[in-house]
């Protein structure tokens, strides 16, 4: 492991930025619908056998309609829901809503030093890296971590390093 620090940058997380970041990772939330579907199928099957005696395809139709409405609701509101959850978490931890962190990049991993935690992530543990106009977003499901990198605070070399490390293609 190479312990030589290659780059350092600072980023500030705000409720709005957090909401934007989470909405760029929608499949984590929609993946949870799959677990909810399994739960509904089991419950509906039990109720169907014990009480209702309704054809099972009616139950499946209910699940499909439920998924459609839930997906539409989440697509529209995911940013606001995430923003509100961020505000509640920061208030519960008695931390400021604008949370600054310093991010150190090494050859094989990064270290994000902020409040409430210091997070060390190997690049291979990052599930998703997204580039938008002003930011890079990193998601690590294993540790339930999301990291924001503000491009305005990055050197051109760091931006190129991130793009190459995560195979982010730039379309001009």
Explain this structure.
- The chain has 4 helices and 7 strands, in the order βαααββββββα.
- The protein has 172 residues and is α+β, with helices and mostly antiparallel strands.
- The strands form 2 sheets. It has a 4-stranded antiparallel beta sheet with strand order 1-2-3-4. Strands 5-6-7 form a 3-stranded antiparallel beta sheet, with helices on one face.
- Helix 1 runs antiparallel to helix 3.
- The longest helix has 37 residues.
- The two termini are 35 Å apart.
- The mean pLDDT is 82.
Work out the strand percent.
15-25%
Helix/strand/pairing category: alpha+beta
Q: How many structural domains?
A: 2
Q: Name the CATH homologous superfamily of the largest domain.
A: Pleckstrin-homology domain (PH domain)/Phosphotyrosine-binding domain (PTB)
Q: What is the molecular shape?
A: elongated
> What's the helix count?
4
Low-confidence residue ranges: none
Distance between the termini: 35 Å
CATH architecture of the largest domain: Roll
Q: Which strand order does the major sheet show?
A: 1-2-3-4
Provide the gyration radius in Å.
20 Å
Compute the average pLDDT. Answer: 82
CATH fold-type name of the largest domain: PH-domain like
Please provide the ordered H/E string of secondary-structure elements.
EHHHEEEEEEH
Strand count? 7
Helix content: 40-55%
How are the SSEs placed, and which strands pair?
Elements: E1 7-13, H1 15-23, H2 26-52, H3 56-92, E2 99-105, E3 109-113, E4 118-122, E5 128-131, E6 135-140, E7 145-150, H4 156-165
Antiparallel strand pairs: 1-2, 2-3, 3-4, 5-6, 6-7
């Amino acid at each position: 492991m190479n312990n030589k620090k290659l780059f350092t940058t600072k980023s500030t997380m705000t409720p709005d930025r957090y909401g934007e970041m989470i909405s760029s990772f929608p499949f984590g939330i929609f993946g949870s619908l799959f677990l909810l579907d399994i739960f509904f199928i089991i419950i509906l099957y039990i109720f169907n056998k014990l009480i209702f005696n309704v054809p099972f395809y009616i139950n499946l139709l209910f699940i499909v309609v439920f998924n459609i409405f839930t997906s539409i609701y989440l697509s529209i509101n995911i940013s606001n829901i995430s923003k509100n959850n961020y505000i509640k978490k920061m208030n519960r931890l008695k931390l400021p809503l604008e949370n600054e962190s310093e991010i150190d990049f090494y050859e094989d991993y990064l270290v994000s030093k902020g409040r409430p935690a210091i997070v060390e992530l190997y690049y291979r543990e990052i599930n998703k890296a997204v580039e938008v106009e002003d930011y890079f977003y990193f998601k690590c499901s294993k540790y339930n971590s999301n990291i924001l990198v503000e491009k305005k605070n990055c050197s051109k070399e760091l931006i190129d390093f991130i793009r190459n490390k995560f195979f982010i293609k730039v379309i001009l």
